[in-house]
Amino acid sequence: LSLYSSPARETKYVENPKSELEEGVSHLRHIMEPYTAWWQLELTGSSKVKVDSSLVSGFFSEGYEFLQKPPAGFYPRLGVISFAGIIGLFLARGSKIKKLVYPAALMGIGTSMYYPQQAVAIAKVAGTQLYDWSLQGYIAVEALWKDN
């Protein structure tokens, strides 16, 4: 609490005057409002049913069903993996590279604990890809070395 009373401040909101361009756009919007409302009604009324039925029957329904009846232990696993990412963000203070590497690495470690077969398959593919990239880099450096 303040020991001294403060004088009452009288504030008043003053709106900036509108420019000619803003006035013209505002006037045009008011004129076109009934037509745009009619156009939106026409478009959404006829095509919305088709779009909704195609989305529900496709990818989104599978995801919805999976989240309604998840496999045993799915949500605790998801929580542990997400928590590992949050810890990675907490530990990665300072550098932007750390903010990319730490959460991804910790989430990858957490995921590999719960899904070891998939982690081995991904590691094999990543190892092969890394070997190919290093071999291409070696060939490129060797070609540059021989040219000079």
Fold and architecture overview:
The chain has 148 residues and is an all-alpha fold. Among the domains are: 51-93; 95-147. It is built from five helices and no strands. Helix 3 runs antiparallel to helix 4 and helix 4 (96-114) crosses helix 5 (116-147). The longest helix is centred in the first third of the chain and has 38 residues, at 20-57. It is extended, with a radius of gyration of 30 Å.
Measure the end-to-end span: 78 Å
Helical proportion, percent range: over 70%
Q: Spell out the helices and strands N to C.
A: HHHHH
The outline comes out as extended
- Overall average pLDDT: 83
DSSP E strands, number: 0
Oligomer: single chain
Q: Helical element count? A: 5
Report strand %: under 5%
Largest sheet: none
Low-confidence stretches: none
- The Rg value, from CA coordinates, equals 30 Å
Judged by helices, strands and strand pairing, the structural class is: mainly alpha
In a nutshell, what does this entry contain?
By secondary structure, the chain is mainly alpha-helical. It is built from 5 helices and no strands. Among the domains are: 43 residues; 53 residues.
Keywords:
mainly alpha, single chain, 148 residues
What is the topological layout?
Layout: H1 20-57, H2 59-68, H3 74-91, H4 96-114, H5 116-147
